Amino acid sequence: MFWHTKRTTDWALLLFGVIALGIVLASAVVVFLFVRTAHDRGLSFARPETEVSDPVDETALFATYRTTLTALRTAIALDRGDMFVLVDDTFFSVRVPRSLLDTHLGALLRIQRLQITDMSEPVAREEILLILDDILGRIPTTEVSETL
C-alpha cells in the first residue's frame, strides 16, 4: 500500500525543478556579467571617503563651540529644564572641532553614564557642570589647532 514495486517518475516535479534551476543559474550569470562589466569600466560600488567640502574658519568653529557649551552650562546651572535632555540636544547638534572630538565623545559618555546611575539630581548636576568646565578649559582661546 505505501510502497510500490513499480516506481514512476513525476514529470511535473522534474520539469518544475529544471525550470527553477535554470532561473537561478540565469540570475547568477546576469549578476556576474553586471559586476564584471562594472569593474572593467572602473565603476566602484564603494563610496570614497572625502573631507568635508565646506571650508570652515577654525577660529570661528572654536568660538561657536565655546559659546554653545557656555550656554549649555548656564542653562544647567540655572536649572532650566531636564538637564539630560539639554545635554543630549546640545551634544548631538553642535559642530565639534576635530582636535576636541575625543574629549567631546568622552564627556558625552561620562554624562550618559551619570544618567544610568541612580544619583541624586543635585549631585548629577554638579558632575555635569564639572565635565562641562573640563571641556571648556580644553578649548584653546587664542591658539588654533593646525589639523582641522
Low-confidence stretches: 144-148
Give helix and strand order, one letter per element, not per position.
HHHHH
When the domains are counted, the total is: 2
Sheet of most strands: none
- Gyration radius (Cα, Å) is 31 Å
Structural class: mainly alpha
Mean of pLDDT: 83
Q: How many strand elements?
A: 0
Strand content: under 5%
Q: Helix amount, in percent?
A: 55-70%
Quaternary organisation of the protein chains: single chain
Assign an overall shape: elongated
| End-to-end separation | 82 Å
Number of helical elements: 5
Describe the structure concisely:
This protein is mainly α. Helix content is 64%, strand content 0%.
Structural overview:
This protein is mainly α and 148 residues long. It folds into two domains: 9-49; 58-138. It has five helices and no strands. It has helices at residues 11-40, 58-77, 83-93, 101-116, 121-138. Helix 3 (83-93) runs antiparallel to helix 4 (101-116) and helix 4 packs antiparallel against helix 5. It is elongated. Mean pLDDT is 83; it is low at 144-148.
